[in-house]
Amino acid sequence: MNFGNEHLRIVQERFKSVKNLGDQTISQLSEEDIHWKLNESSNSIAIIAKHLSGNMISNWIKGKQNCPSNH
To answer: What are the φ/ψ torsions at residue 41 (nearest 5 degrees)?
Structure first.
């Protein structure tokens, strides 16, 4: 068994599990709930999800392009 392949399989499995949990959670909310903010200093669930998405794209896709092993 190749350690790298096994590690990748486990990470992908965990990612799918966490994504499924998030999808199930969001599906229970109304559009109003998703955009609700406690106050003007707070972020809504929609804004937090947008930030998380941007961070993942930046770290996983753009970060991989700048990885020393790709040069």
So the answer is: -90, -5
3-state secondary structure 8-51: HHHHHHHHHHHHHHHHHHHHCCCHHHHHCCCCCCCCCHHHHHHH
Output the six-digit token pair for 14: 């965990």
- Write the CA distances from 63 to 5, 36, 59, 60, 68, integer angstroms: 20, 32, 5, 5, 10
What is the tens place of the pLDDT at every residue in 1-59? Answer: 798 899 999 999 999 999 999 999 999 999 999 999 999 999 999 999 999 989 988 88
